[in-house]
Task: inverse folding
């Protein structure tokens, strides 16, 4: 019943902590390439599906109508660190639709990036909704609602036309009915529905290949993926896993973190989709697991391999810079 | 083989994440009161044993010779948040022994407390060694070394006379040989040795009761426990679990968090010692588990029960203040 150990944390020569989890790697038809643990139990994908939540931004015509640029589209798919460029870009997206930051309903929080938070504090300012890690997604929601000619107010509620579009996109991509009893509320106040990892992985294989999608929808995802690949800073931030990985691999891997230990990804050239969750919700382990899957499946150049190895086996140093331990994929995950 | 689930994290009506772990509740003779999971595997106790690491500070005569006050002794047992009072108190301890902050070898880091970190950033300052969450412990090490008439320089190294004293205290309390192959380096650069939870729990039963200890050593622990009970702010900080719990319970519970999901504690009136570790290293789950054990074993007044319930079943609210989920002890832990 218990999912296998995916990631080990060492200190000295001792395994100090372990992270259990489950993952699915499938193709666009759902054929299994690798399955570990229970991938049929519904889990909240959280922010890992922001690229799907951004679909109405394209399909409503908003992206074209308001002339959204690729860095803005990347931010619409982002869980960003709240650095100045992130906040400024979210504000610019809103301005294109003639809206103000006050219309964002995600709530304000200090920048997720610790250095960004301290930099903001140094200026004496307080955080705004623009610093919320989801502000780009929410700005995209506003743009989409405006293009749909619906009042954006209340766009975070399950019954709002915008959220109904998001839910329809999620159900179409995953093939999994989004039932009310599997609904939770995300950190940014929009609904999140639990979906099996297997269905999420297949959705991402479709996002990476277009298989099973209309030509328009396949093109919409190709556009969003290209935007993120061209602007990996926007989708996360300085020193963040998603930014580092996509700076190294470009469009070869589209990866997106979600809260509570979730990752979704696609390797378009292999036609594969991936979804994983660390059972304990640990981001550090989800990152190591994601990097291990990149190493396991994608042929890498020496330069790419070096960049990914730093993510799959991160060294942990203490406040004096001493190497005290490592994180590493467990046997089940690392072995070819 | 896998330890049981100790803590569940819910979102909506769904269990979103789970935390496995092990724990031992024993008396000073080692008799089992409650054991869950594997408590015989050595685990790094990390900062959960700071009260034992502070023993040389008392037994060297330093505490008396330098006139250390109870708030300073509490800080010597602390993983503090780096708030101004913490940093000032560490500096004062050093001054009593005629030493400067520069002699601390723990390394500098931004205050562990996010609000304290931002407050420091607002002043334009950078963090110093005094802000390190272990600065009180290290200031205590310096005082102890001075009272031992040994040069404090290099006091973080395993071979230094001070660390040999710390190791001897740990071995005497736990009855477990500290072998080099089970040695790691802690965040603050001192050695940490892996010890079974069962042995740690018995050590804390002894700390709480004095059973099996010399009269002098029993008195030393009683003094340290009383100092922490009188100054729970010093041992952690604003909004922190250990501070809140000991503000509510006073000397009825001595609890101390360690990194990577560890807690050690004693309930002196019951003669019990406790050691637990969440296998994934999650502090949030270790806290819930610790609070659940307080509820399970200690008779509580209505006011105490209310304070502890907020810790054993914390509500998680999002950036708009909406209740999105809870953490709670799993069945194995909660049931009487």
Result:
């Amino acid at each position: 019943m218990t999912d296998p150990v995916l990631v080990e944390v060492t200190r000295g020569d001792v395994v100090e902590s372990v992270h259990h989890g489950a993952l699915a790697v499938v193709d666009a038809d759902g054929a299994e390439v690798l399955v570990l643990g229970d991938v049929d139990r519904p889990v909240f994908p959280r922010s890992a599906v922001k690229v799907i939540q951004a679909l109405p931004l394209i399909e409503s015509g908003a992206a074209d109508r308001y002339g959204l640029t690729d860095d803005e589209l990347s931010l619409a798919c982002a869980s960003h660190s709240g650095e100045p460029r992130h906040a400024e870009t979210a504000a610019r997206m809103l301005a294109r639709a003639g809206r103000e930051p006050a219309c964002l309903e995600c709530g304000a929080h200090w920048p997720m990036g610790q250095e960004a938070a301290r930099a903001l504090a140094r200026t004496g300012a307080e955080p705004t909704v623009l610093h919320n890690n989801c502000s780009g997604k929410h700005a995209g929601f506003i743009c989409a609602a405006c293009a749909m000619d619906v009042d954006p107010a209340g766009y975070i509620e399950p019954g709002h036309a915008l959220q109904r579009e998001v839910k329809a996109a999620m159900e179409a991509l995953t093939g999994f009915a989004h039932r009310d009893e599997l609904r939770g509320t995300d950190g940014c106040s929009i609904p999140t529905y639990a979906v099996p990892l297997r269905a999420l992985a297949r959705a991402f294989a479709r996002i990476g290949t277009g298989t099973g999608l209309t030509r328009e929808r396949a093109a919409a995802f190709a556009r969003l993926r290209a935007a993120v690949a061209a602007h990996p800073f926007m989708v996360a931030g300085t020193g963040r896993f998603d930014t580092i990985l996509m700076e190294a691999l470009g469009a070869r891997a589209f990866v997106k973190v979600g809260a509570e230990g979730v990752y979704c990804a696609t390797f378009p050239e292999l036609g594969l989709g991936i979804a994983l969750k660390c059972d304990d919700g640990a981001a550090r382990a989800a990152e190591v697991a994601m990097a291990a899957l990149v190493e396991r499946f994608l042929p890498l150049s020496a330069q790419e391999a070096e960049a990914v190895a730093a993510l799959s086996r991160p060294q942990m140093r203490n406040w004096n810079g001493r190497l005290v331990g490592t994180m590493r994929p467990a046997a089940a995950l690392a072995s070819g």
